[in-house]
Amino acid sequence: MSLVGLRKERRPIILWIGALLQRKGPLEVMEIARALPYMRFVMIGSPRDLYIRDRLMRERPNNLSYLGAVSNRSKVALIRLSSAGITTSKYEGFGLIPLEFLLAGKPVLTYPLPTFHELYGDLLVYANNIPEFIEQLSELRRKRFKVKIDESKIALLRTQWNISQATWRIIRLLNIKSAVVFSEDYEKNSSTIFGCDLVNWKIWRQIRDRGVQMQVLASGVKYSEAFHMEPQTTQIGRRVAFLRRIRISMNKNSSLVSERGLRSDTPQWSSDMRGAAKILDVLLCIAEPLSYVLGYMRNKRRIRASDIVTCNSRSAITAGIIVKCLFRSRLICVIHDTGFYDIELPNSSFPWKVYFTMFSRCLRYVDRIITVSQKTQNDLSRFCDSNRIILLWGRS
Question: Which of 196, 189, 252, 183 is nearest to 19 (CA)?
């Protein structure tokens, strides 16, 4: 269903925004939608996990639509058109989606995540499980989705989460005069959208606008063009991008139905395909950090910077640690969450468990870590000295 068609929808519209990833719980929306046929559910976001996307399109009830990744203008229009927002994420380091709904005066239902309690308090409607989501949505419908949102708290959030002010504070606090940024980016036509990437690129732009001499080494061009940072950006890793496209195509071509014709919870691959996927995963794990390191070495004469700032990407952070060891530069990282340790490590095979554990321990070599929530700050203190961690939105 298109945006035009949704404007004619008489049922209340419940909007879910997020990347299709297991930890975001997108398949739970199907269960909620089935129990509430008198509501129209709409989901938007990047189809990062193609298996989840295919299963969603195959099994969704009639009152649920998945529109894929949409433009920012369409997202804002959908938020205004919706009666309420819903997020079924099981883990968040920060979480900007609830704020977007609150700024539009819409109620938001979420799981009671520690980060949401820290950032939003009682501005959100919390549910512990799917039956409670169904019950809370039914209650909101009885109230015609009219809830009282404390405007003074919303105004405080606007003031507190001002990226321009926060970035200026960080520049002064860390005395950043010049910087090389290792940043994740995507192909120009990519549908991938992550809130952490948007925050990162807003920070990079603010650093530039504050007069800091900087050069960005990025793995794509999407955000560098969107934030008008092409003069400061050098694209690296084009061959790595080719490997990444092959890996994504393998997911697309994997069979989602088992030999018995039953729906399966994981893509069904032949042993050869599974082996090839593992080899590609290992190659990408090695090639992505090396592309940043080689890009830095090729541009070292042109890049005269005292700081290396890396974003929320394991590859970029790994590359930053390697460059720090080789050239003794100061290393500053922006880390939004510890999902690599709390989510990915427990669900990985033994070799990947070793990798995630080693990556976690290497964080002690980072000079300063900038994070976006107190919870992430506390979680990161397991791996490195808490005195090295700075809260982006802090007051000091």
Answer: 196
